[in-house]
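hey
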């Protein structure tokens, strides 16, 4: 508890899907000075807004910058379709947010900076399980490369700043997240919420089929959002090294297997139609999470089937509430 008691913690993206869970974990750990910059108040792609955000956090909590810890979660992100439609914007906004937040943190003497990367940083044909040492052995999968490279730049920046300035920045690489509170907007959602919505909507509309992108052969690994949040807080407290660190559950599942599981758990009884004209994305994804276990003791705890059921239940309940 003493690590967090006297610290000011800035959580960019703290009102989002992952961010709300990270804030909850911080409070459990004893943090009581948490500053959450909202997008409507601070455009973190702009230097002046970042500067003002740091000043406001400092004024609100009365802590020195050396007593301040930043967890940078804010991102422009989405599934394959959103990445293809917004390649330029995703690259620019993610790059500018990370670059300017880190540079101003260095200038101010911020005590520690946690950057959150993405599984999309890995090369398209990375051997499975993905090990951090393979991060630079090829170009990322094309459909999300601009986003992945923009996030990867934060790794380079914190490593370079550590080398030259002694900057205490770390870089975490979570695999695909899921859980209650996820983004279910079909224009930008990832695969799990998209599949849940397709099944629930089809049952409600009386349709006897759902359409799913790709061939179903690609594989993914999924990390329950509260597990990820716990891993981030553990790393922020206990880890201070230059090497990137995977956060994952070490469980690989094909999109076809995932789709059948979502169909089963939602109770949808219709046909699955595969749109093979749509891309699969990266062929396989599953990380080696042993470095996180060794460096700061993180191990994922949530059973995938249980986590999926909780996510479905949350969506169904909140969908009902939104209609009343």
């Amino acid at each position: 508890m003493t690590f967090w008691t006297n610290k000011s913690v800035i959580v960019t993206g703290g009102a989002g899907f992952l961010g709300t869970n990270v804030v909850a974990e911080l409070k459990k750990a004893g943090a009581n000075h948490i500053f959450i910059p909202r997008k409507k108040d601070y455009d973190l792609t702009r230097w002046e807004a970042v500067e003002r955000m740091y000043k406001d956090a400092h004024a609100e909590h009365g802590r020195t910058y050396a007593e301040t810890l930043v967890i940078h979660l804010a991102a422009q992100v989405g599934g394959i379709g959103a990445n293809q439609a917004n390649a330029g914007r995703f690259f620019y906004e993610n790059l500018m947010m990370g670059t300017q937040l880190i540079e101003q943190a260095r200038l101010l003497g911020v005590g520690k900076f946690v950057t959150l990367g993405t599984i999309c940083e890995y090369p398209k044909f990375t051997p499975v399980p993905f090990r951090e040492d393979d991060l630079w052995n090829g170009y990322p999968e094309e459909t999300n490369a601009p986003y992945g490279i923009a996030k990867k730049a934060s790794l380079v920046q914190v490593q370079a700043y550590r080398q030259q300035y002694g900057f205490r920045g770390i870089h975490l690489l979570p695999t695909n997240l899921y859980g209650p509170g996820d983004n279910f907007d079909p224009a930008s959602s990832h695969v799990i919420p998209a599949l849940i919505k397709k099944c629930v909507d089809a049952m409600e509309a009386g349709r006897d089929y759902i359409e799913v992108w790709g061939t179903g052969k690609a594989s993914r690994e999924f990390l329950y959002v509260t597990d990820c949040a716990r891993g981030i807080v553990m790393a922020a407290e206990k880890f201070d090294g230059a090497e990137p660190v995977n956060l994952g559950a070490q469980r690989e599942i094909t999109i076809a297997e995932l789709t059948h599981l979502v169909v089963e758990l939602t109770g949808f009884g219709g046909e699955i139609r595969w749109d093979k004209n749509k891309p699969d994305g990266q062929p396989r994804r599953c990380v080696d999470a042993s470095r996180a276990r060794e460096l700061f003791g993180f191990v994922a705890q949530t059973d995938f089937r249980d986590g999926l059921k909780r996510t479905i239940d949350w969506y169904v309940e909140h969908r009902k509430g939104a209609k009343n």
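The longest strand covers residues 169-174. The chain has a mean pLDDT of 95.
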